[in-house]
Amino acid sequence: MPHSGSFVPRRVMKVQKIPQFYARIQGMSEEQKRLLEKQLWGVANTLRGKMNADEYKNYILGFIFYKYLSEKLERYVNEKLLASEKLLFAEIKENTKEGKEYIEHIKTACVGHLGFFLKPTELFSYLVKKGRGEIKHGDNKDQNTFILEDLKNILNAIEKTSAGTASEDDFKGLFDDMDLSSTKLGSREKDKNEVVVEVLTLLSGIDFKLEDTKSDLLGDAYEYLIGEFAAGSGKKGGEFYTPAQVSRLLAQIVSVDKKRIKSAYDPTCGSGSLLLRLGEFTEVVTYFGQELNPTTYNLARMNMILHGVHFDHFSLLQGNTLTEDMHPDLKAEAIVANPPFSMEWKGESDPALVHDDRFSQYGRLAPKSAADYAFVTHMLYHLADNGTMAIVLPHGALFRSGAEGAIRKYIIEKQNYLDAVIGLPANLFYGTSIPATVLVFKKCRKDDEGILFIDASKDFEKEKNQNKLTHANVEKIFETYKTRKEIEKYSHRASMEEIKENEYNLNIPRYVDTFEEEVIIDIDAVSKKLKELHANDAGLQDKIAGFCNELGISKPF
Predict the structure, then answer these.
(1) Does domain 233-510 bear CATH number 3.40.50.1000?
(2) Residue 375's closest CA among 387, 366, 386, 364?
(3) Residue ranges of the domains in the chain?
(4) Which residue pairs from 20-24 have beta carbons closer than 8 angstroms and sit at least 24 positions apart in sequence?
(5) pLDDT in tens, 291-335
(6) Which of 128, 207, 238, 456 has the fewest CB atoms inside 10 Å of its own CB, making it the most exposed?
């Protein structure tokens, strides 16, 4: 029976230090990371052929997440709560009086610290053993290896234990996209069970190395899987994933010279990868995000938790950002976004939007056919006075006229918020081959600072059907932005007068001259060279003809 000195359940204070996304320790090799990625992708391949990538990603990522939660809880309980008890969590007998008392105390502590709870018989390791027939039930020789219902109940239990607590929003509906009754897992219940047991068994043989609290091997591997699934999902991949190098560029830009950011925000957060990338470059206290797609929203929450971000330190909500702003009072120090390019929205057809403070001051609303500047002004509304924001947009946002032109002019002329325009290569993003641009905004710019233009459209590496920014490409862009250095045919600091002369058209070729002069060809020299070659050819043919005559064979010409 637990005694009074065993442990005291507690809530985690909000001042705790956030684990850094890409923290590394000495000795943690790229080889270990690649091995884990290979192992996890191998498990994912067990479902390949049964369904498309967009579907089976929900199962694989969900199973990995369940294993992670289970092992995290078990490690926390054994090391922090039962260290002096000479007892392991998995050994607790749930149906005994003493076991029930232990469970209640442990549950309180786990929900307060981790945000959820699992019983010993709900642990990943126990479920795998049951699925493999390793759990004995009295003298019954025919072991019950059917775990589908158990798994459904366990995933529901994770959600239920958070209900009514501070972590409820972060666990509610988290596993809704894992349809364990789907016929794609098998036509019969027996077949479905066998597939699930196979996948969980394979996962059980992979060491997530959770004991190494200073590394983020699993986080990196999870990101790798999300990227692979995005690549295999075609157009849908772009809905939830921003290519890693692009997200690193945005993260570097908005966090430059900042060791700590109180709040980071992504209004179209997808899988959360763009937000999480900030942790590579600075300490982020609280992450804020909103996502419309429920499946992607679930993935983003999983991604946050799996990367060690405590539930007190992120607020991701589901809904349409433009019509239902769910963080109305937020003023964020760093804002990043890769919204859907030129998506349709309600615009002026909705009176509420016409009078919305996020849009009304610009005199015009973004057109119904393209919400690009609706996202821009929404983000500017939520940007802190000392903050920086970076948004990925299609090139058309640089020069389209009408309402977009009016908004663009107001931002530049009246607000002086536009800091930089960065042109990216074509075919970088999943789902579209068009070139994109990054617009950088600040509210604390000097009046005479000008706008930096960078043309990085020709700097990339070709990979299969996709172009990719290399580390060197990203560093060149970032250093140019940071130093605001002018480089011939690459970057230019445009004065406000230049911008005005161009009628607030931001098309990059107007400011960065990438024209290459044609090489003048000397026709006479070419003609002379051709004559020499002809003469040499004629002489060679004569020699060959002589040899053929000597040998008594026909000439080859």
Answers:
(1) no
(2) 366
(3) 30-231, 233-510, 522-557
(4) 20/216, 20/279, 20/280, 20/283, 21/216, 21/219, 21/276, 21/277, 21/278, 21/279, 21/280, 21/307, 22/216, 22/220, 22/279, 22/280, 23/214, 23/215, 23/216, 24/214, 24/215, 24/216
(5) 999 989 999 999 999 999 999 999 999 999 999 999 999 999 999
(6) 207
70-103 pLDDT, tens digit each: 999 999 999 999 999 889 999 999 999 999 999 9
Q: Is the dihedral of CA 251, 254, 257, 258 positive or negative?
A: negative
- Residues 478/424, Cβ–Cβ less than 8 Å: no
Q: What are the residues facing 454 on neighbouring strands?
A: 422, 491
- Cα–Cα distance, 366 to 377 (Å, whole number): 9
Q: Give CA–CA dist 151/211, Å, rounded.
A: 25
Q: What is the enclosing helix (H) or strand (E) of 159?
A: helix 148-162
Instruction: Determine the residue type at 386.
Output: N
- CA 481 → CA 338, 474, 532, distances in Å? 19, 11, 53
Determine how β-strand 418-423 pairs with β-strand 436-442.
Answer: antiparallel
Question: What is the rounded distance in angstroms from the CA atom of residue 73 to the CA atom of residue 113?
Answer: 10
Q: Kindly report the backbone phi and psi dihedral angles of residue 287, in degrees, each rounded to the nearest multiple of 5, phi listed first.
A: -100, 135
pLDDT digits (tens, 9 = 90+) for 359-401: 999 999 999 999 999 999 999 999 999 999 999 999 999 999 9
**CATH tag for 30-231 (out of 1.20.1260.30, 3.50.50.60, 3.40.50.720, 3.10.129.10):** 1.20.1260.30
Number of residues that this document lists for the chain: 557
**Contact residues for 196 (Cβ-Cβ < 8 A; gap 6+):** 131, 147, 148, 151, 180, 185
Tens of pLDDT along 151-195? 999 999 999 999 999 999 999 999 998 999 999 888 999 999 999
**Residue 51 backbone phi and psi in degrees, to 5:** -160, 165
On whether the CB atoms of residues 508 and 455 are closer than 8 A, the answer is yes
